[in-house]
Design goal:
The chain has 54 residues and is mostly helical. Helices cover 80% and strands 0% of the residues.
Length: 54
């Protein structure tokens, strides 16, 4: 996880949100899992960005 850039976390977060919205009608449990994963990935990107700017 040390070598992963903040931009990668942001991209994975956006991808997770898009997949969550696509799969919302088909499977509601996968929607919530992807939604939570997207939020976690976004905050990991923010934390990574804060740590690299110090």
């Amino acid at each position: 996880m040390k070598n992963i850039s903040a931009l990668t976390f942001y991209f994975a977060s956006v991808l997770s949100f898009v997949l969550a919205n696509v799969l919302k009608d088909k499977n509601l449990s996968v929607y919530y899992i992807l939604l939570v994963a997207g939020i976690i990935l976004f905050f990991l990107g923010v934390l990574k960005r804060i740590k690299t700017n110090r």
